[in-house]
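Supplementary Methods. Inverse-folding protocol.

Structures were first reduced to a discrete structure-token string of length 136. This string, shown here, constituted the complete conditioning input.
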């Protein structure tokens, strides 16, 4: 009985440590999203021609799993600014919403972390696009 209590206590301690390490790893991966990123891709409006874009994007932690996002993107024809919020689904995937006050456009954004790069896709009723970002 005493031996089984020791094994049970030891097993619980190991599981607690593993859970803490997993949570710390997730937290460390999430922290890596914070900061300034830049890169390029394309935007494809429903009522226009697909254009290449260059963007600067900043992420700031708002809570354990929520990040604010602010982006400025330029195409040959215009410069646009949008803000939004992302929720961490898992340490390598985020989903959320964006809003562009210049054109009163809102939509969905998805971010996938792949190594040191972020792959971003976005869509709205007015079109969509994608870009790849690296840390600035």
């Amino acid at each position: 009985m005493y031996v089984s209590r020791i094994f049970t206590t030891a097993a619980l301690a190991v599981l607690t440590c593993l859970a803490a390490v997993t949570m710390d790893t997730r937290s460390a991966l999430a922290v890596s999203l914070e900061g300034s990123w830049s890169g390029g891709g394309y935007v494809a409006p429903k009522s226009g021609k697909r254009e290449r874009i260059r963007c600067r994007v900043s992420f700031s932690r708002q809570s354990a799993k929520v990040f604010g996002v602010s982006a400025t993107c330029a195409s040959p024809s215009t410069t646009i600014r949008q803000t939004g919020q992302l929720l961490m689904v898992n340490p390598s995937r985020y989903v959320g919403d964006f809003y562009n006050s210049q054109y009163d456009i809102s939509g969905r954004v998805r971010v996938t972390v792949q190594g040191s790069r972020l792959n971003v896709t976005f869509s709205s009723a007015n079109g969509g696009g994608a870009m790849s970002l690296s840390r600035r």
